[in-house]
Structures are given as structure tokens and as C-alpha cells.
Write a structure and sequence with these properties.
With 152 residues, the protein is mainly alpha-helical. The chain has one domain: Peroxidase, domain 2 (Orthogonal Bundle). It contains 8 helices and 2 strands. A two-stranded antiparallel ribbon has the order 1-2. α3 packs across α8, α5 crosses α7 and α7 crosses α8. The radius of gyration is 15 Å and the shape is globular. The relative contact order is 0.20. GO terms for molecular function: heme binding; L-ascorbate peroxidase activity; metal ion binding. Keywords: Iron, Metal-binding, Oxidoreductase, Peroxidase. This is L-ascorbate peroxidase. Its EC number is 1.11.1.11. Belongs to the peroxidase family. Ascorbate peroxidase subfamily.
């Protein structure tokens, strides 16, 4: 719920939310998030094979990097991805296509999206069309948040 609210109050799309999912008694095992130093095959392994998400979902969810920043003590990387990390928009994709910019961070896993023949056209689409990004992001966010959820 916090992620849905954060996206919406920072200018992003309305993400469908279905209450009722029970919290897990234990945290999930380490390694469910992708390694930021790896490329597209790794992203597909983590999000596709493990979670059942599509290539479109992977790129759309990567756009969530438009919010926030990396913290060196947590990831080894430091800095925001976008000039205004408190606004949810398509600037992650425009910055990614624009190349390295002083003061902004792009992880190796972000840059790898540009080298993939399926991922890059989606990056270009979302950079040019914020509405398309918002629609695909909302769908992917909902799908990710409902992994393992079955209504009674």
C-alpha cells in the first residue's frame, strides 16, 4: 500500500490495489532483488523466471527508479537517478537515453536496458510517451504486488 500511495502522491499513475493480502511471518530470502551490477539476462532470471513478469513489466518497473536514490551503505552506489527524485514521471527513461549526467546515477543494470533488442525499444517508447509508461507501470506494479496473493 505504501508504494501505491507514494507513486500516486508524487504525480504517478493510480495503481490498482486489492486489500486482503496477509503479511508473511518471515521476510523473503535474500537475493530476490536483482544485482545492480548485472545485465539483462539476470533481470530476466529474477523478474521473469522467478516472478513470472514480462519484459515489458521489467522495463516499466525499472522506471520506478524515477523516485528516490541509492545509498552507498545499502548498495554500494550513491545518488538519485533523476534531477527531481520526488516526482514520479518518465524522466528516468529520458535521462537513461541521454547518457551519463553529472550528479545522476545509472546502475549497470539500468544501462544494460539500452543494449537489449527487446528492452531498448520500450525505454524509447516510455521516454517519448509518459502516458504509455504510466499505464504499463501501474499494471506491472499491481502484478508485482500481488505475487503469491490469492483471494479467499
Amino acid at each position: 500500500l505504501a508504494g501505491v500511495v507514494a507513486v500516486e502522491i508524487t504525480g504517478g499513475p493510480d495503481v490498482p490495489f486489492h486489500p486482503g493480502r496477509k503479511d508473511a511471518p518471515e521476510p523473503p530470502p535474500e537475493g530476490r532483488l536483482p544485482d545492480a551490477t548485472k545485465g539483462c539476462d539476470h533481470l530476466r532470471d529474477v523478474f521473469g523466471k522467478t516472478m513470472g513478469l514480462s519484459d515489458k513489466d521489467i522495463v516499466a518497473l525499472s522506471g520506478g527508479h524515477t523516485l528516490g536514490r541509492c545509498h552507498k551503505e545499502r548498495s554500494g552506489f550513491e545518488g538519485p537517478w533523476t534531477p527531481n527524485p520526488l516526482i514520479f514521471d518518465n524522466s528516468y527513461f529520458t535521462v537513461l537515453l541521454g547518457g551519463d549526467q553529472e550528479g545522476l546515477l545509472m546502475l549497470p543494470s539500468d544501462k544494460a536496458l539500452l543494449d537489449d533488442p527487446v528492452f531498448r525499444p520500450l525505454v524509447e517508447k516510455y521516454a517519448a510517451d509518459e502516458d504509455a509508461f504510466f499505464a504499463d507501470y501501474a499494471e506491472a506494479h499491481m502484478r508485482l504486488s500481488e505475487l503469491g496473493f490469492a483471494e479467499a
